[in-house]
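Q: Structure for this?
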Amino acid sequence: MTDSDRQTEEKIFEAATDVFVEKGMDGSRMQDIANHAGINKSLLHYYYRSKDHLFNAVFEKIADEMFRKFAPVFDENLSLDDKIRFFFREHIGFLQRNPRLPAFLLNEINRNPGRVKKLIRNVNVNKFWMMLMEQHPDELAEYRITKELLPQLMITIASISVFPFAARGILETLFENMDIDFDDFLEKRKEFAATFVINALKNNK
Amino acid sequence: MTDSDRQTEEKIFEAATDVFVEKGMDGSRMQDIANHAGINKSLLHYYYRSKDHLFNAVFEKIADEMFRKFAPVFDENLSLDDKIRFFFREHIGFLQRNPRLPAFLLNEINRNPGRVKKLIRNVNVNKFWMMLMEQHPDELAEYRITKELLPQLMITIASISVFPFAARGILETLFENMDIDFDDFLEKRKEFAATFVINALKNNK
DNA sequence: TCTAATTTTGACCAATTGGTTAAACTATAT
DNA sequence: ATATAGTTTAACCAATTGGTCAAAATTAGA
């Protein structure tokens, strides 16, 4: 598929995604997006009414993609331990392929929390957590994970997976001075994180 | 101390801190900072040559403050377990009093990684980690924390402490729908995080 | 008190920004 | 072929932006 074959609207969306993710909403320029897409700036307004509209389209797609990545865990027919292993492998793997998404999303959400409200309203997180408790009543009881502790546990798991990407800018320069390869660190983290969390749970018996 | 007593330069710095932390470098306006400080915009350029200079002054002070908060752990004459407890109590406590700093720092560093290079060059992180290994050779051996695993462990600890603040915008709206109080969550996290990490280590024996 | 240095101000500027518009171009259907 | 609708472009605009400057106000030193 050559560059000119792709539909203009699609080209705009992809260029906008690149620029917005790299520079953020405030740091991005419509002219820059147009250049990236190889088209006239007016076309941005022709297909997407304004910078806000264009940004929202990009933001919502990325946010949706991101949140969706948490879901499969609740479907998989696995033991709790295997679910944890599955999650870290898949989630860190996804972020390795999209390393800039966490920083972009976290920043834009903090900058404008109202944006995420609209998205989250549709997702009943409670439902997912109830599913977890129904799928693994015995294991959770064994590990003494009460309903009150579940948020702490879930956010701890998310922290361990997402934070290295959100802090990529620091970690990469930190690692430079220590002869550690960031990609290698991430690859090993899939296993380390799973074992770490499972150990923490097991010892809580 | 009344408003007019405070030195102008100090007033500017404080106003700039507020605005930059809230809106980020790109989203902040010099006029807005001047208004916050209650002074004429030209004074910003009189005391700090440009927006870049002003931002760097603010950024470097905050970054320094932030990194400094990781250091006391390496001094305290405590067992490894107590150090972990001490760290989470103090670090989450500090972030509770400065909840916007993590998101601000992480974003600006990702936006311009060169900025942090200058700061980190002075801090030999390796040295701190070596100190840890010298202070607790027995415990680390017992927990099977090798030199290769230490970065994974340290970053996991940082993740658990910092991430909830970086993701504040999401978590607060998430919690809203679940009748969880964010401040209460943070207060309980100090204890939860410490126990969680210590359990993970103990079970690795 | 008078003078010189410092601090503060408002008016101003060039460049950049998101956005508009009318004209030009292209494709499609009759 | 030609009219029509959809697409693309260049020129333009008003508002905003970081920054300058000379004059005014204040302070400090003699």
